[in-house]
């Protein structure tokens, strides 16, 4: 099995040699003084800098780097050189996913088995999931799992935006430790509302990132022009939230790199694709996944599918390819290393039938062939997570039905209650309702689609619990609970039976993370996610089957949302309007203020 670099220093040199020695070898290979390790002949090689696609071209690779692109590469080979005859096929740079969330169900080893076959050679992922679960130790353990893999995996330091004051913000020493790591390219998405409402939480961290020469990734969903300008004044460099051509154009005009999402949570590419009619420069536009489910990854592929869809929607093929290669590399200031098939860059490239057909016939990463015709030729490196990674999502005690009681504040038989109402499967709004008091408290009312929603902290104040009410979730019986609740160190549950809510939360805790559906005290669907509370080492097929069972279980409880688990997890999110909950109570995202349950 091929070996892969341990660090970016080695990645940049291609070997363990000093830069000078490595550069000298690359220069000698370009001049034909020493033989190439790999050459590609009879190819059309896309030049992403100029948009040219010359025929009868070749590539010379030495020590994992491109030494030369042009004619006459046959003379740079000897008997030990690996020769790839492209037979007239097109060579393009390996794809870069500039914004994703890899730590969602799959450990890196399993994710890469499916992500590497289609031409993706670099991934930039958020890692805040690890910090919410286990702090710096959780993040560094995950980063260790991403090292020495057949393709490059970079990350952004977590901004730790949260509606919970217990979870918000990253420790200064932790941030400094992460920024000192070469695989950390900047700070991840920081929601504009939080930054403008609580600048004191973020400005010191932003300054550290800027001084490190790294990027500040943005999240500008719903920001007006004026608020967007204020947010950008903090040094934000990108946004992956535009959902229309108009929003994308607005952000491009203000100098942002605009990342167009086409993944499992959001599919914005078709709507944003109208921007191609605006006759503008697209060099600050990028294509990203923003996360992809195991089902979608297994069924449809990864970045190659996104690039193909962009072409099918009418983007010029060169523009579409740039948006998943050079543009992303330039944003992260890595275009001297990745993003192009050019001298001095990593030898990351893909052979495809023609410029409009994104079907990987051969995938090369750092000069090694890692996949051919959809089949992996190398195996991702397994990682043994620290034992502490399997014990992050644990409550100090089992909860019972009484922990989910909503006690009335006085003896009045009817109380005015502030309820989270589901406007869509993700968006909520405030609804004030007059609800009857039964046995001293407010009960769920499934006949009127009123359920309880609870958040239970497992890290900073383990066991601290808040229970509110949600209308429109659809649940008619039992309960669902999960770890990985967005932007918090909480477990989250929805149910119409307090005992079932307790059973579901307890089961998640006993599993050290995961998703559980309970009906009449019995588990009817579950997926244990014991690694940092968000991942499992199970194979892809088992995860897909468990997710299918969970969706079926959710349907049997009455939940009809397209992705019931996502609807559950986002109840704590700090970015999706308008009312959210955490272990401290309800929060109005417009103002950032906590709201009383009883109005």
Automatic annotation (TrEMBL):
UniProt KW keywords: Hydrolase
Catalysed reaction equations from the record: adenine + H2O + H(+) = hypoxanthine + NH4(+)
EC number: 3.5.4.2
UniProt domain Amidohydrolase-related: residue ranges: 90-358
TM helices/strands, residue ranges: none
One MF term in the entry's GO annotations: adenine deaminase activity
Stored InterPro entries: Adenine_deam_C, Amidohydro-rel, Metal-dep_hydrolase_composite, Metal_Hydrolase
Protein name: adenine deaminase
Cited Pfam families: Adenine_deam_C, Amidohydro_1
Top-level taxon of origin: Bacteria
